[in-house]
Structure formats: C-alpha cells, structure tokens
Amino acid sequence: MKHSESEVTLTRPALYSIYDKDVTNTVEDYKVLKQKFITPSKNELSPHKTIKIYQRVLYFFVSCSILFWMGVMFAKLSTELYDNKSLKKWMLSYTLVKFTQWSNTQLPFPTYVVYGILGVLCGTAVPILDKFLLSEKQTKPDTDLKAVLKCFNALFGICLGIRTIQWSSSLQASSAWGLLNLILWLYFDGTLSVLLLGSLISGISVAVTYLSMNINESVPWFYLLYIVDFYFLSYLVFGKTGRYLLQ
Which sequence ranges are marked TM in the entry (predicted)? Predict the structure, then answer.
C-alpha cells in the first residue's frame, strides 16, 4: 500500500530534514560498534591469555622459591633449638640428617637442595589435598598474609620460650608444646588437610629417629615428643604459607 507524500511527511521525525536518513540508523550503528569494539575477536584475546599464563608461571616459580628457602631455614632452625635440660642443639635435626644421607645415596644433591625440595613438597601438598577434602560449602581458613605471619610469630615465640624458660624437665617442656600445637591448629587452621599431613610427617620423623637408634639404646619420651611438636608446627606454617602462595 503506497502512502501519499503528506502521510510520509507526518510520520518522519522533526529533524529528518537536518540529519537526513542517518537519524534512523542510530540503532544499527550502535550494534556495529558494540560488535566491533566491545566484543573482541579470538585473535585479540590470545595475547591477553598468553600474558596471563606467563604471569601464572612466573608467580608459581616465585612461590616455589619462597617455599624452597623456607625449607632451608627450617632445617637450620631444627639444629639451633634446645632447652635448658636434656634437648641439645642437634637432636631435632636428626631426622633431616638421616633423610639427607639416604637421598645422597640415590642422587648426590647438596644438603641445602634436599632441604629446599622438602620445603616445596610440604608447601604444595596442603593446597592439593584441600581440593579433595574441602568442599565448596565448607568454610575455608584465612589464607591472607596476616594469618601466615601469625603462624610464624607463634613458631618463633614457642622456640624462644623453649630455649629461655627454666623448665623442670624436658618432658614438661615437650608436653606443654604439644598442647599448644593443638590450640594453634584449632585457632589458625582447623582443617583435616594439615592435621593428616602434619601427623603423617611427625609419625615418619619419629619412626626414622627410633629405628635409627641403636637397639640397646633407649629413646627418651621427651625426645620423641619434641620431634612431633616441632614437625607438626612446622608443617602448620608450611601449610598456611602454601595456601597463601598457591590459592
């Protein structure tokens, strides 16, 4: 059905004579601009993906480096911890020394490299196990830098207390440390991942120490308790740090 010129004039916009037909193309132009500039093509997205992957690889390398030197530092700490009674400087590093001696029979790495590799393994094991044990609905523990620093402060504070407080016996000191470990685990973490892996590492350390001693030589209880205390709390620190770096 054809329209007369007067009807067409009445239905045209008032500014049609100024802007000509472009006034009716606003919607079409907006769609073209949106498709061209707002929605990037696959070729435009690929550089961003490459940069993101590169950044993630670099961040993972830096995180593993931090865990590596943490392993070296904790090995040094184990040689310097003692109390005013029966615990001597070298005693808590006995398990690490035995493991290093065994690893050198397989692959002759420097001692600090073995300690660093153990640090990386301890730090990465907790985030991996969290994926299997922690559900999405379960509340995850704090993994910010403040929580990690609190764990470090607790560890260094306990080590300082063990060295400076005048204990009545080494068994008293190791028992008090064990009770503090339970409180610190509940307060700072409370996850099954750290509890299982920390208990496993502590149990292996006790077994290595006990089996490495002479058959006729009795292993004092305080010594075994100290081993459990130190390695469990150390693993709590590694777990918190690993979560923070690899979350």
Answer: 57-75, 112-135, 219-238
* Cβ density class 151-162: b for 16+ within 10 Å, e for less: beebbeebbeeb
Evaluate whether residue 96 is within a structural domain: yes
Distance CA 203, CA 105 (A): 23
Task: Domain of residue 22: give its range.
Answer: 5-38
Which tens digit of pLDDT belongs to each residue from 60-113? 999 999 999 999 999 999 998 989 888 888 888 888 988 888 888 888 888 999
Residue 184 · residue 150 · CB < 8 Å: no
CA-to-CA distance for 36 and 40, rounded, in angstroms?
A: 7
Q: Whole-prediction pTM value?
A: 0.75
pLDDT digits (tens, 9 = 90+) for 120-176: 999 999 988 888 876 555 556 667 888 899 999 999 999 999 999 999 999 999 999
What are phi and psi for residue 169, nearest 5 degrees?
Answer: -160, 160
Instruction: Fill in the DSSP letter of residue 23.
Output: G
